């Protein structure tokens, strides 16, 4: 069912040019301005909070897996995910606080989970400025007042983690340059919210007297965009730098690994009925690909999607329904034994875009923290363009802002 504010927007052609009138900040415009969905998206606040609460409860189930399945051993849990010991040595056995983005499809009035990205290394937070800019367009302001529209900025929620002092966003291995437009937009968004952040790479840090330093500047907080694999080369610095806050800790990585979803989906006998109801409400059937008989995988090609367990931005994702039998068989043979999960196909409700007769496929990116709903990113593309709605991985993907209506806290 179409949200009533969405229906009102689609029915008023005078509003359809709003996205072409956005006054976006320069870096955000340079990165996303040419790839905007020609409409904003809308959601009622109650749904935003309800789904966020489900995601928080789901995360609690994920973080209970070491205790439920491995007698509390983080090392055994990580080994089951294929994470090597030298990376686990940098992690704590304590439950990491929730800070993540759940990628979901809308199916009717419900939302189904594709993956849960856990940790600070998340893209799309700066989409909050698309929402802000939409509300500032004069032709849209009457509609916004009529429907009491507002937004939650994911960057503001991220900055709550860092506290005061000198903050750096750290990448590694040349990725800062590869994604320099995205980081410039994120840095710009932070500055607009009153926080100037440094950008750097892990290779350029050092440790002195318990603090991390970036090119000679002492850091009070680091927002982590690098992986545990990349951190191994700086293990001594991280273990000694107890006075610099790392947001988020490396153990968050374990709970964003797609193989964790397979563990949760497989071991249903370890959960209570209310917990299983939550899993069934959110998560499609998910398994380690190596644990599923090849005959089953081959026979159900059109209802399965194969995903590399520790990749991102759509890398290593293969939709069976977009391949023929021969291609699917070859893919299964090539990836057998590799770290892949297989998941049941989700058939989302498609969206309407003004001026385009094609149905659009939308990925709703729910940002969630321990406090609850922390904003939302929208990525969408024509349904005919494939199965992976990824800005970096699919050139047909467009982005937009999310506006809330209903009982929105100030």
From TrEMBL:
Domain of life: Bacteria
Protein name per its UniProtKB record: Glutathionylspermidine synthase pre-ATP-grasp-like domain-containing protein
Organism of derivation: Saccharothrix espanaensis (strain ATCC 51144 / DSM 44229 / JCM 9112 / NBRC 15066 / NRRL 15764)
Source lineage: Bacteria, Bacillati, Actinomycetota, Actinomycetes, Pseudonocardiales
